[in-house]
Specification:
The structure holds two protein chains of two kinds. Chain A has helices at about 1-5, 15-30, 30-45, 55-75, 75-90, 95-120, 125-165, 190-205, 220-235, 250-260, 270-280, and strands at about 170-175, 175-185, 210-215, 240-245, 265-270. Chain A is α/β, with parallel strands linked by helices. Chain A folds into two domains: about 1-165, Orthogonal Bundle (Globin-like); about 170-280, STAS domain (Transcription Regulator spoIIAA), CATH 3.30.750.24. In chain A, helix 4 runs antiparallel to helix 5 (about 75-90) and helix 5 (about 75-90) crosses helix 7 (about 125-165). Chain A is elongated, with a radius of gyration of 31 Å. The termini of chain A are far apart. Chain B has a single domain (about 10-120), classed as STAS domain (Transcription Regulator spoIIAA, 2-Layer Sandwich), CATH 3.30.750.24. Chain B has helices spanning about 25-45, 60-75, 90-95, 110-120; strands at about 10-15, 15-20, 50, 80-85, 105. In chain B, helix 1 (about 25-45) runs parallel beside helix 2. Chain B is globular. The N and C termini of chain B lie far apart (about 25 Å). Classes of the chains: A alpha/beta, B alpha/beta. At the A-B interface, helix 8 and helix 9 of A face helix 3, strand 5 and helix 4 of B.
Chain lengths: ~300, ~130
């Protein structure tokens, strides 16, 4: 986090911090004009287009006030809270990191520009004001960007957990027959979890045949493929045979190209065929009941 | 021949021998188990052997090699071998370490093992 590294970095020391109240007063005084200017700059650069104009006004005013407050108090805590809260609201709407950083930098520029205007007569004073303003402004930009990224990482972690929770159900369809539909990307973490669940499932359901359907898996890399082969072998050691169904054209080509040994795998085109084969192995015959012909 | 409590019980059920390993065996005990079992196949004129390893949560490479050897020896003595009750963790570890051996015939538990032996018996000369 930025707050520790940036404190006391201001080289001009006392005289510059002394100017901050004056600066804050100036920004408060021209609040409406400056935040309008900022909002129009945001529109011009086509940032935050996911937001409606009303929302934008509300958010820009809030950010502006927070910004000035940080300049005044030197404490970024409130801003951090606000930035995290804002990120939480805008991340689901697809706002990108560059947009967030972009708008904060725009505000920094807009305010700096107004300072130039105000102090253009006194170059020495302007320099001192900028000495006070710049570190604080950079720190704010830093805080907002970091908060946004942190919030996004939190969302990503949460989603990863959710995916892991979804996991892979092992479903008994008939006595001694399990199906294992695999949906989504199989990474080695999920593959390991899948193996554990399958082997435990074989024991609890006393399964003899397992149909593993990978129609929903977009791709399989070499590690995962080898893991699947080992899972099939381990299932066999527990007395269950595994039928793999739904290998997509891409996966079939990948597996053969990278040279995974699948000669021991029993594969069948689709889930329907796999279930039919499984029923055959288990000795089931499924017959359709003819509709009774009543005259 | 046994000193101390039995670590393995070998029971006869018709023409099938059921050997249950109750606890992890060290290498010496494993070898003695192998000798006992192979000898008893002849004594009982067994056609099938079931080795139940359900009580084991570890099966090291020596033990799995011995199991494969037992299966092959039993075949030479005229009996088919089925290993039953391999635990999930054990199964995965065996495959991971490459000690699984495609040579083993396996079934989920004793019941399935007996059914499998019955199937093998019907289909003429059986392979271990």
């Amino acid at each position: 986090m930025a707050e520790d590294t940036q404190t006391g970095e201001d080289p001009s020391g006392v005289p510059a911090t002394h100017l901050l109240p004056q600066l804050v007063a100036h920004l408060r005084e021209h609040r409406a004009r400056l935040s309008d200017e900022w909002a129009s700059r945001i529109r011009d650069t086509h940032l935050l287009e996911a937001m409606t104009p009303q929302e934008m006004v509300a958010e820009t005013t809030a950010v502006y006030d927070n910004y000035v407050e940080v300049l005044e108090t030197g404490s970024v805590e409130a801003l951090q809270h606000y930035a995290r809260d804002l990120s939480e609201r805008i991340i689901p709407r697809g706002v990108e990191t560059h947009e967030v950083v972009g708008i904060v930098l725009l505000l920094r520029d807009v305010l700096a520009r107004s300072l130039f205007e105000k102090y253009e007569g006194d170059f020495g004073l302007l320099n001192q004001v900028l000495d006070a303003y710049e570190p604080a402004a950079n720190r704010i930009a830093n805080t907002v960007a970091v908060s946004f990224v942190e919030e996004r990482e939190r969302v990503i972690r949460q989603q990863q957990d959710a995916i892991r929770e979804l996991s892979t159900p092992v479903l008994p369809v008939r006595e001694r027959l399990l199906i294992l539909p695999i949906i989504g990307v199989l990474d080695s973490d999920r593959a390991r979890q899948l193996t554990g669940q399958l082997l435990t499932g074989i024991r609890t359901h006393r399964a003899k045949v397992v149909v593993m359907d990978i129609t929903g898996a977009p791709e399989v890399d070499e590690t995962v493929a080898n893991h699947l082969v080992r899972t099939v072998d381990a299932s066999r050691l527990m007395g269950a045979s595994v039928i793999i169904t739904g290998l997509s054209p891409t996966i079939a080509q990948t597996l053969v190209t990278i040279g995974v040994d699948l000669s021991k795998m029993n594969t069948i085109g689709d889930l329907q065929g796999g279930l039919e084969e499984a029923e055959r192995l288990l000795g089931y015959t499924v017959t359709r009941k003819e509709p009774s012909t009543s005259s | 021949m046994n000193t101390g409590p039995a670590l393995v019980s070998i029971l006869r059920q018709g023409s099938t021998l059921v050997a249950s390993i109750h606890t992890a065996l060290n290498d010496t005990e494993m070898v003695r188990f192998q000798q006992d079992l192979i000898r008893q196949i002849g004594e009982h004129r067994a056609r099938g052997v079931i080795i139940d390893v359900a009580a084991l949560d570890v099966l090291d490479s020596f033990a799995s090699r011995t199991l494969r050897a037992v299966a092959e020896m039993a075949r030479l003595r005229g009996a088919s071998t089925v290993v039953v009750g391999i635990q999930p963790e054990v199964a995965y570890a065996m495959v991971e370490l490459g000690t699984g051996g495609d040579a083993l015939t396996t079934a989920l538990d004793l019941e399935d093992g007996l059914a499998l032996l019955a199937d093998l018996g019907q289909s003429g000369p059986a392979r271990g």
